[in-house]
Amino acid sequence: MSHANPEGADARTSAAPSDTTTGELLARLSQETSRLVRDEIRLAQAELSETGKRAGVGLGLFSAGGILAWFGFGALVAAAILALDLVTPAWLAALIVAVVLFVGAGVAALIGKKQVQQVSPKPERTVDTIKDDIEAVKEARHRDHTS
User: Fold this and answer.
1) What's the distance, CA 138 to chain centroid?
2) What is the pTM of this model?
3) Which helix (DSSP H) or strand (DSSP E) does residue 14 occupy?
4) Phi-psi map region of 83: left, alpha, beta (phi>0 left; psi -120 to 50 alpha)
5) Within-domain flag for 19
6) Relative to the CA of 105, which of 36, 77, 112, 120 has its CA 20 to 30 Å away?
7) How far is CA 123 from CA 32, 41, 46, 103, 132, in A?
8) 41-61 tens-digit pLDDT
9) Same domain, 108 and 67
10) Predicted local distance difference test score (pLDDT) of residue 88
11) Looking at the structure, do residues 105 and 140 belong to the same domain, yes or no?
């Protein structure tokens, strides 16, 4: 006498939850855990990529501030030379340029510093979703033990 399922479906997939064997449950848990870990890794990669971009912009602006400060120093040196050598209004023009470059350097450095400070050292969304996953597993275990 055949015990085949009349609809042709595998008995394991159509079995009621209480008829499922421990081995089948463990296999399903392993598959779901694997999928969950892969999804969490993808999320962490995406979040770290976004964080890296923000850090790159901040460091770029901070570097721009350093370059502008270097040119400002050069212009200030030129202004001092002109002031001592010519004692004419030419040194005043060089001094004005130096001040403008230093102001630009300060603004770029402050914006860059702010960008770098906003970078999170950990993938926060991934940590949150992992916490949610752990809570869901705990709730499922609690429901299974109370039923």
Assistant:
1) 28
2) 0.39
3) helix 11-14
4) alpha
5) no
6) 120
7) 22, 10, 9, 35, 15
8) 888 888 888 888 888 888 899
9) no
10) 66
11) yes
